[in-house]
């Protein structure tokens, strides 16, 4: 099975900061990597699909990059509504899909 | 607008089973796969399995093999997830999610169903 790791597991940042979250796969997954945002008590929301494509309606301050085993999610200028948990998910090993353990972004 | 609406919260005894429904509207139900993802309190997301409604084929994560059954009723655009032999560790919010066919991302999610397993 493909294992996903994320770093950091949590971070504290201020409004306006540039934030980068890293996701690593245990083997190459090409660009089959998706990113989600989840706020407390809510379902996850798809932000980025296929490693770097912005889902419709998602602000352009979110961006994704990477391929193979190493991926990043970047928030260019953190906004108050961005304080949440973020998860990566691989969709390479169809039909078995795995999520990373998550990164919690909170207010410094 | 695509919507996935799940059934309500459940409280179950250890050893029993639970069946959660997920009714889709606003899209072509059979054209997409539906996955089930759970989240234990304070924990991350865990993919459980999926169904391809047009084929009626289901796949499951190894962890849940033998305990989970995912089905779909095309006539009502509803997917179901049944989990048996419940234990306290199965207490979680269970989500259904529609999967994009090319990227494999989950673009629409149900609101979640809290299943509490307690004696």
Report what the structure shows:
The complex is a heterodimer of chains A (108) and B (119). In chain A, 0% of the residues lie in helices and 49% in strands. Chain A has no helices and 11 strands. In chain A, strands 2, 4, 5, 6, 9, 10 and 11 form a 7-stranded mixed beta sheet that branches. A 4-stranded antiparallel beta sheet of chain A has the order 1-3-8-7, with no helix packed on it. The mean pLDDT of chain A is 96. Chain B is mainly beta and 119 residues long. In chain B, strands 2, 4, 5, 6, 9, 10 and 11 form a 7-stranded mixed beta sheet that branches. Chain B is globular and about 40 Å long. Chain B is built from no helices and 11 strands. Helices cover 0% and strands 52% of the residues of chain B.
Short description:
The complex is a heterodimer of chains A (108) and B (119). By secondary structure, chain A is mostly beta strands. Chain A is 0% helix and 49% strand.
Mean pLDDT of chain A: 96
Helix content of chain A: under 10%
The 3D shape of chain B can be described as globular
Strand content of chain A: over 45%
Number of strands of chain B: 11
- The number of helical runs of chain A is 0
* Oligomer class: heterodimer
Report the average pLDDT across residues of chain B.
95
Radius of gyration of chain B: 14 Å
How many β strands of chain A by DSSP? 11
Order of helices and strands of chain A: EEEEEEEEEEE
Q: Percent range for helical residues of chain B?
A: under 10%
Give the largest interface. Answer: A-B, 26 and 24 residues
Helical stretch tally of chain B: 0
Tell me the distance between the termini of chain A. 36 Å
Structural class of chain B: mainly beta
Structural class of chain A: mainly beta
């Amino acid at each position: 099975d493909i294992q996903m790791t994320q770093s950091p597991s949590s971070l504290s940042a201020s409004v306006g900061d540039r934030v980068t979250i890293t996701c690593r796969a245990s083997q190459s997954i090409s660009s089959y990597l998706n990113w989600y945002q989840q706020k407390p008590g809510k379902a996850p929301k798809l932000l980025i699909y296929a490693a770097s494509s912005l889902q419709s309606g998602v602000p352009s301050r979110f961006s994704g990059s990477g391929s193979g085993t190493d991926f990043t999610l970047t928030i260019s200028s953190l906004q108050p509504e961005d304080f949440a948990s973020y998860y990566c998910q691989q969709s390479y090993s169809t039909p078995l899909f795995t999520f990373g353990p998550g990164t919690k972004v909170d207010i410094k | 607008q695509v919507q996935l609406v799940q059934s309500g919260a459940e409280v179950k005894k250890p050893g029993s089973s639970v069946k959660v429904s997920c009714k889709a509207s606003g899209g072509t139900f059979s054209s997409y796969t539906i996955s089930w993802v759970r989240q234990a309190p304070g924990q991350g997301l865990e993919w459980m399995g999926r169904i391809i409604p047009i084929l009626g084929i289901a796949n499951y994560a190894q962890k849940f093999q033998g305990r989970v059954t995912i089905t779909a009723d095309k006539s009502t655009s509803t997917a179901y997830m049944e989990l048996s032999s419940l234990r306290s560790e199965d207490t979680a919010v269970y989500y259904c999610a529609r999967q994009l066919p090319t990227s494999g991302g989950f673009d629409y999610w149900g609101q979640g169903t809290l299943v509490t397993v307690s004696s």
